[in-house]
Amino acid sequence: MKTIDFDFLKITVTDVVDIVFVALLIYYIYNLIKNTLAVNLLLGMLIIMIIWFVVKQLHMELLTAIIEKFMSVGIIALIVIFQPEIRRFLLLIGKNTFLQQNKAWWGYLFGSKNIERDNLVRIKPIIDACKSMKKSRTGALIVFVKFYDDQLFANSCEMIDSKISKRLLESIFQKYSPLHDGAVVIAENKIKSASCILPLTDNDKLPPQFGLRHRAGIGVSETTDAVAVIISEETGEIAYAKQGRVRMNVSFGELEKLLNKDF
Q1: Which residue numbers delimit the DAC domain (predicted)?
Q2: pLDDT tens series, the chain, 263 aa
Q3: Could you tell me which residues are beta bridge partners of residue 115?
Q4: N or C: which end of the chain has fewer CB within 10 A?
Q5: How far is CA 221 from CA 22, 58, 88, in A?
Q6: How does strand 183-187 pair with strand 190-196?
Q7: What is the DSSP string of 110-151?
Q8: Contact indicator for 132, 165 with CB cutoff of 8 Å
Q9: Whole-number Å distance between alpha carbons of 229 and 255
């Protein structure tokens, strides 16, 4: 009597690790592309591959050759098309490394709690300005970046390079100020520039009441490691955008915690 060999079902520790890493990779990719145009692009590529398989099986030589020529530059096309997603993916990996996740413990061990307290002092003028603009329903878009990208911001902004100040922020976003349209960019504990034109998000799932400020704040958080604070001109409501996602109805206590963590 023949016995059935189940050797192919043997799973090693390496196989389990391999499966876990692939699952994590799929999860990260899904988080990056959901609710974006990248989903439609992937569906389009999948349809082209299905068509290529069908026409190849039907021996339609001319159409097969055309599709194969198109697919031969697939890797380059993927890099060009998914450049924002690839950049966000690499930023996400950098942010989730062991050292980044445990920087609070490292800071505690090496005495950087003082840095955290100093950070709260630097955040206070921003919070105070947001309180004032919320009360007066002054529309505002404040973007926080770790590293100021001259290529991205300087070409479309008015350079300021000033100390962070409540009055300066209020003056910039005052309705009749020539700089009130666009975003203020804060980096290196300075107001680096104002009246910045930012890329709008391609997300078509956003609520219809979101205006250009919200779409610009979400857009810049999708393509860079920036976070954005958005104050609605219509309602005075404060929103917080990070990694392409937006948090609505943010209280001042929540805003202080978020900025202390991300700024």
Answers
A1: 83-252
A2: 555 555 556 778 887 888 888 888 777 777 666 655 566 777 777 888 888 888 888 888 888 888 888 777 766 766 776 666 666 666 656 655 444 445 544 554 455 555 556 677 788 999 999 999 999 999 999 999 887 776 666 667 888 888 999 999 999 999 888 888 889 999 888 899 999 888 888 777 787 788 888 999 988 888 777 899 999 988 889 999 988 888 999 999 999 888 888 87
A3: none
A4: N
A5: 26, 46, 9
A6: antiparallel
A7: TTTHHHHHHHHHHHHHHHHHHHHHHHHT--EEEEE-SS--HH
A8: no
A9: 9
Distance CA 214, CA 228 (A): 9
Tokens representing residue 46 in the block: 């999948």
Tokens of 182: 């666009």
What pLDDT digit, counting tens, does each position of 138-150 carry?
999 999 988 777 6
- Integer angstrom CA distances of residue 138 from 102, 118, 204: 38, 28, 26
| Strand-pair category, 190-196 with 227-231 | unpaired
Q: What residue segments make up the domains of the chain, in order of their start?
A: 13-94, 119-262
Tokens (6 digits) for 53 = 């398989």
With H, G, I as helix, E, B as strand and everything else as coil, classify residue 75: helix
CB 185 within 8 A of CB 153: yes
β-bridge pairing 140-144 and 183-187: parallel
